[in-house]
Amino acid sequence: MPKAANKSVADFLRTLEKQDITLAEWSRRNGLDMQAVYTVCSGRALGRRGKARAVMAAMGLPLPPMHTNGSRSPQAALATATAAGVAA
């Protein structure tokens, strides 16, 4: 596993390429679910919790904030953003 923190998935993949390690090999070496690794790399998972968060941590990527108030509906998120003055 790369020791330095990576700023993005692309940085992580470049590091693996320099070390001549495939993504599948890296996931096996680190005991991670290969499908979860590919899901994070493709951007389909945000890494807020579960396997995707563990994968992002192992990759040395910055972790997004976890949900602190349980699952919020999109309407509640929009109302919060609107109240904060953030354009949707």
Task: Summarize the topology.
Blueprint: H1 9-18, H2 23-29, H3 34-42, H4 50-59, H5 74-83
Helix pairs in contact: 3-4
What is the averaged pLDDT score? 82
Low-pLDDT segments, ≥5 res? none
- Protein structure class: mainly alpha
SSE sequence, one letter per element: HHHHH
Span of the ends, CA to CA: 38 Å
β-sheet strand percentage: under 5%
| Global Rg | 16 Å
Query: What is the tally of helical segments?
Result: 5
**What kind of sheet is the major sheet?**
none
Morphology: elongated
Helix content: 40-55%
Counted up, domains total 1
Can you count the beta strands?
Answer: 0
Protein name: Phage-associated protein, BcepMu gp16 family
Biased composition (Low complexity): 76-88
Region (Disordered): 65-88
A few lines on this structure:
Residues 76-88 have a biased composition (Low complexity). The protein is an all-alpha fold and 88 residues long.
